[in-house]
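ok so for the tutorial part 2 we go from a plain amino acid sequence to predicted structure tokens. step 1 is just haveing the sequence, like this:
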Amino acid sequence: MKKRKIITALLCGLILLTGCGTNAEYKPVETAGEQNEKKQEANGQDISMESKSSEGKMIEAVYLEAVAEGRDSESFVMGDEHWNWWQNYREMVNASVERQEGMDAYYASVLQELLLTDQNENTVCSPLNIYIALSMLAEVTDANTRTQILDTLHADDIDMLRERSKALWEANYLDTPVIKSLLADSLWLRNDITYHKDTLQRLADDYYASSFSGEMGSEEMNRLLQEWTDQNTGGLLSEYTKDMTLDARTVLGLVSTIYYKAAWNERFQADRTGDSVFHGVSGDIKVPMMHRDDMMPLYRTDKFEAVGLGLSDSGSMYFFLPEEGVDVKAVATDPDALSICRGTWEHESSYPIVHLSIPKFRVSKKTELLESLGKLGITDALDPDKADFSPLTDKVDQIWLNAAEHAAMVEIDEEGVTGAAYTELVMAGAGMPQEEVDFVLDRPFYFAVVSPDGSLLFSGIVQTITNATEADATDRIPSIMIDGVLYQDTGYVSSAIGCGTMDGEITSSVEGSELPAENNQSNFGAGYSWQRSSEGQIIVAIDARNEIFRDPNHDFAFDMPEEVLNFRAEVKELRGNGQLLVEYIDAPEMFMKPIESVCVIPIDNLQNEVQVGDTVRVWFDGLVQEIFPPILPNVYRIVKEEVEPVERDN
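step 2 — the prediction. this is what the tokens look like for a chain of 650 residues:
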């Protein structure tokens, strides 16, 4: 079976320690391997970085072995090897869960600092990756410098932190034919300073951190740093890694990475993906929207609705859609959202059939961390006069944290492998669902990728989508500016009987990839007449159709316009070809009678389950194919109404 990617997430973090007043002189002598052997023979406690060649590997961490390397995912999942691996992996997950007391507070503080900015922009981070990087930072510090880091990580002491970090690593390092969750750490050391051996060895043993030595500030050292980071992130963060450097004053560079690749338990069918509008903060744009219908838990609060999609041999990806009027940033830091991700949700959830509509997207961001670390309570490490890095070396008078950065990328699409590994997580015994729900991510939303032990691998806010297809990326939603207000096409047609007098005309236009900036200007052409409608709404006459345009910032921007033709009808027949036969009952007085009796309507936009005899309301564009029975080809929405049928219009 072809191996398919649906989530690729990558992260790298760089922490630089700068020093001054070094007591060691630069002496280019043996190779990295030779200097390691000779120094360990001479001194069991310290390791000198002095070397002839300016760059080399000092200590190499031993990672967990790949499982069933070279096997395809299908044969692996169906064989005994997968069952044996899964049982062992569950033990590591349980061990990690037992050691995570207090981590909710850490996650809450990190999400607050890294996802919320003053700008309306996409943000993404890896709370787990930052936790591991700061844990390594704690290992090379002491006294109050270490205490501040332990407090930020909500660990009572360094021994607790060591046990927790190792458990987190082992529960989140996965290398099988089905799932790739590859963590890597590295230390970048000066070749003219002696470092404490026990500290470097502990970082290799407990944090799987390899050590490299070289001449800080050299082109060769910077090249090796960039190559190592690219190798451990699949080369997909090269836009950021090309700027990674170690200046001549650097005493230690600490880099932590995650490469994550997983598949949905139930994939999205590519033939159902179609263009839809995403109402982003920078304007509406057409994006590829994936669709899937499935029975799943639906979490509801007064701030958001949320669903979680299972990942093969991994955890889940949660999507949080804010309620109208709720800022997505408030959802990202809401305690209920965190409890859902962490598996501590204590409220009831329903299990409806959910009609999912999720955009394909790619988000990435690079963040400077120094200011955030200070706000989290790590301040001594930033102060040359207070920082204590004595566990690292005693050969430098002052060492302090001079630079820290974090870069992450998350991408999703339809592809994936339908696997059986997570069958125990599929909801069972809930009976037939009592409702059907549309869950449409067509405006800013929050997401989180969570591993089986509850670790937040990645979290992010999507406020705009820029990875549309080439045709889409240059084609904005048709828009018009009137009296300084930008109105955008809703896709709906007005069938209301109007006065017939137009209020103005579009006199100029810009390219379809731009937004109008002047009054009576559009991005779809000139010469079209327009008429004011209700507040926040205008009607534009385009090709004999009265298209409804709305101000996207108006309160009703996502409601169905009242000018859209609609009628009540009784369901007469459920046809097996995706159609309903309905009989007309009545329509609002503002519309002419659209049909005489019965008609056929497609059920693509049916909002809930119906039976013969139910009353439904149907919204459509007014087009009727005059055959028998007539067909309405363009139906916007069908909703079941809990009312008794009334006398039909004559």
